[in-house]
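Recall the central idea of this unit: under ordinary conditions, the amino acid sequence of a chain determines the structure it adopts. In this exercise we apply that idea directly, starting from the sequence alone.
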Amino acid sequence: MIRLASIVGDFEADFLAQFGTRLNGDHLHALAAIRTCRGPASPMMQVQCTGCDHQKLVPHSCGHRLCPHCQHHESQAWLERQMQRLVPADYFLVTFTLPAEFRGLASARADVVLDLVMRCAWDTVRTFSQNDRQLQGTPGAIAVLHTHTRRLDYHPHVHLVVPAAAVDAAKQRWRRKRRTRKGTYLFNEKALAKVFRAKLLAALEAAGVRLPARYPQEWVAHCKAVGAGQKALIYLGRYLYRGVIREQDILACHNGRVSFRYRDAETGRLEKRSLAGADFLWLVLQHVLPRGFRRARNYGFLHANCKRLIVLLHLLLRFDPARFVPPRKLRPLVRCPCCGAVMMVVRTRIRAAPAAAVTDPPVSGVLF
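Accordingly, the structure predicted from this sequence is:
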């Protein structure tokens, strides 16, 4: 398997020479973190055998959310929290896409534009729910921002996992959409796109963001039924904390070019894309979000502050979300090379030692 860190090491100089003027502090921080992840230059932790007291140094992971080698545990923990908030209702995956004319603006003013995209997407869903005859209340939503296509091109869009239900706080009522022979219907896609467009344009102007000279009158929104919701959450959690590309999908790195595979959304077939090493690094690093930006958010009755309400709903509706929680994948144990016993961490964040002093290779699949 070809590591992203090794690609950074091979092409960093060319990348900085070609794209240096387009990089900000967040890009450079991500580049440095991925380059040193679990390598000799990363901080070390000391582990000690519980059987024979043998000690060794193991490199820390970088923990950056763009690094595909890190944050497996965080991704699983997020998914478990969302599964515990499931309610007995039909779920929908509502997607709002930012038009191509706004992508340059989103890249340059990501902290403002992408934040407003997520806020306006939720506000659109809330408005439709409050005006819906069957719901007439505040919905819940789990929103995740994606900035990439499967080809890794810059394509900001936000997904919202929305149950077809709402809470009327004034009347203390729980309402769900009625299921018909054709299934459950949530909202009209064209109407969603129209309202989202109006809300986002107004929000951008209020924030002092200059709009593009030209942009389409008709925007795109999708509303797809996703059953009980767990599969949609698994899909969204897959790329939440583990970068935009899996290292297993990097096929080759030679002759100054990098090749990776992706699955075509229309045909379902695996396709191959190959480009120069510096261009590949920009393809990945253009998806760095501003530090502190929350790309996963909970809204409405699925907000973290509504834990008591969720528990009450589960009790009254006799619904147990535990049956949807996937089995926890335990972190692999570090084994002693001398006796095979389990090694425990005794010290962390040790300043990196000279390369010659680190005799043990990084522990694959372990995150500390």
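The chain has two domains: 4-65+332-357, 85-244+287-324.
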